Amino acid sequence: MLDAQLLRSQLAFVQERLATRGYTLDAARFQSLEEERKRIQTDTQDLQARRNAASKQIGQLKGKGEDTSSVMAEVAGLGDALKAGEERLAVVLADMQAFVASLPNLPHESVPVGKSEADNVEVLRWGTPRSFDFEVKDHVDVGTALGGLDFETATKISGARFTLLRGGIARMHRALAQFMLDTHTLEHGYTELYAPYMVNAESMFGTGQLPKFEEDLFAVPRGDGSKFYLIPTAEVPVTNIVRDTVQSAASLPLKFVCHTPCFRSEAGSYGRDTRGMIRQHQFDKVELVQIVTPDQSWAALEALTGHAETILQRLELPYRKIALCTGDMGFGAAKTYDLEVWLPAQNTYREISSCSNFETFQARRMQARFKNEQGKNEILHTLNGSGLAVGRTLVAILENYQQADGSVVVPAALRPWMGGVERIGA
RNA sequence: GGAGAGGUGGCAGAGUGGUCGAAUGUACCUGACUCGAAAUCAGGCGUAGGCGCAAGUCUACCGUGGGUUCGAAUCCCACCCUCUCCGCCA
Prior knowledge:
The chain has 426 residues and is an alpha+beta fold. 38% of the residues lie in helices and 22% in strands. The protein has 13 helices and 18 strands. The strands form five sheets. The chain has an eight-stranded mixed sheet. α3 runs antiparallel to α4 (69-76). The chain is elongated and about 100 Å long. The protein starts with a helix and ends with a strand. The mean pLDDT is 91. The protein binds one RNA strand of 90 nucleotides through α3 and α4.
């Protein structure tokens, strides 16, 4: 959420920055809401002040045993106006809040300006795609032939966009998550968490999934009419740890890593990536989250992205790092790097991690603050990134490490988590 | 699922219709004393927001939402959460 003060004082600037993301800020609507808010709020607070003063006077008079009827008559006349004012104020404040909460974040000045994916900027490439002396199969064919990937049965059990893993490939999936967790906790200084997979609406609002993106989520109805939401990423439960808190400066930065399944409705992506386990309703991800002071967040974004890159490098998977352009960034991000892994069967790089600095965008929605050096409460900065998406990492290994005989070599770095197994199949 | 207790400021803990945004203790900050520290003494010390150039001033907040009242931390209703015991359970 943007700072309402910023909107008031620099509306044209905000409008201009949001325009780079292809978002049109309705300045006239904001100004009329703001004007109305100001008027109603001032009037209402004025009435409240008069009511409070009169009530206090009544208390004092009664204490002295004096007559209060004239004051009571005066304040009684305020009742209706006061009630009407308070109701209108509540409405206009809610409208204003909803308006501000619906605005995406301002892109950081270093973000390349562009309209779409096509305008993203490649920052670096790592590794050299392997050349094959046989016909390359995609992960579906590789995994199915090994008996480790079974989409038909998953479809019977649940439906489209689910996967059933079996045997060595299921084990590799588990090993990947363990390898990622151990690397981030033992070498990168993250604290491991186990967190709820279902959260309340407040948490979804805090990280920005609600109210705008409800259709992307799965919800679980509860008996009382409320609902839980299945997390689309561990970012949600983990970042909300600091919701409604004031952190001491000494406790920062907070660095958390959390392995969870992620659940996404994939509404609106019909027909995209229908083959294989690239785009699923349920997939595992190891998520990195950092909660930092504002002066640290840009360095933290580089570091966090580097932590995710380490996993790809250890697994010797070729990848590239992309700076998303203004038009392609997510709702809450001030800046995002995507890491894209090489998939030989598609002959292209595909997203395997997305690392973002949200600056105060999420923290303001969550009222997540810290005590600064002046002893004042200040809004924190939040960041997160995949380190990595486990399912897509498995896909990348199946494709990049496939052999002519149909087997798959286990990347050397992963073998300690695979009981020393060097190869799956054949 | 059944029975009971409770949710007040960073923490502890008073307050059961009016001068209560809230005693007191503790923590913390500033000053005095001290070579320095401790102890002691004095002062300060919640959050969010409005208006104002500023000094300042006003509003809201005592789990949440309603209600009664001129006035609610305090009374009424509903809900949420926590704790204890019983039952059930991975």
